[in-house]
Amino acid sequence: MDDSVAREDAVRIPAGAIELDGDLHLPPHPLGMVVFAHGSGSSRHSPRNRQVAAVLQQAGAATLLMDLLTPEEEQADLRTGHLRFDIGLLARRLVAAVDWVAGQPWDAGAAIGLFGASTGAGAALVAAATRPEPVRAVVSRGGRPDLAGQALERVRAPTLLIVGGDDPTVVELNRDALGGLRAEKRLVVVPGASHLFEEPGKLAEVARLATAWFVEHLGAPGWRRVPGEG
User: Fold this and answer.
1) CATH classification of 7-218, choosing from 3.30.300.350, 3.40.50.1820, 3.20.20.70, 2.60.40.10?
2) What residue ranges do the domains of the chain occupy?
3) What distance lies between CA 79 and its chain's CA centroid?
4) What is the 3-state secondary structure (H, E, C) of the chain?
5) Global pTM value
6) Which of 77, 83, 119, 184 keeps 20 to 30 A from 89, CA to CA?
């Protein structure tokens, strides 16, 4: 294998009695790993998360886009919608992914960031509270950080909450959650953006904000260039 180019691998992540599918992007010299937790009714194939991941990859980050549910669970959830709001279950599986990343030989102690969308943001914050040492930064896109409940107070990782200005209910939920966080924190409301940031240029703004946050807080030497800046 050529160690001078980035690897793109399909991986299987053990999580208790099951395994979860993931797509790994690994640069030759990883400068930090960002694990993506998808939102309600979505998967590792989410085009929005993949767009953000591509910008992070340009900045030199390793990324892991993963499913938090098995294919069978996803089918059941399409009918009932109950698993996407099971934050305890999703967080346990995200913790398993953090442990898996931290145990890989190519990780070498690199800092881990979590990017959560919708209900995945609640799971990301619970996972950050559960694994404070490896998880060094969290970003939420249109997320439900309020679903993390009392775990918010135990989060040590600097946390960025990004919400669309045209999503008023979720804006208020994020303002409430911001008050529960004791770590370094910031709320950014993107004007003219709806819940999914589908308007022209709005998801690109999310990617820029997220990349800048991870660059600042993961602290990997040499990881300082943010695409579109400078």
Assistant:
1) 3.40.50.1820
2) 7-218
3) 25
4) CCCCCCEEEEEEEEECCEEEEEEEEECCCCCCEEEEECCCCCCCCCHHHHHHHHHHHHCCCEEEEECCCCHHHHHHHHHHCCHHHCHHHHHHHHHHHHHHHHCCCCCCCCCEEEEEECHHHHHHHHHHHHCCCCEEEEEEECCCHHHHHHHHHHCCCCEEEEEECCCHHHHHHHHHHHHHCCCCEEEEEECCCCCCCCCCCHHHHHHHHHHHHHHHHHCCCCCCCCCCCC
5) 0.89
6) 184
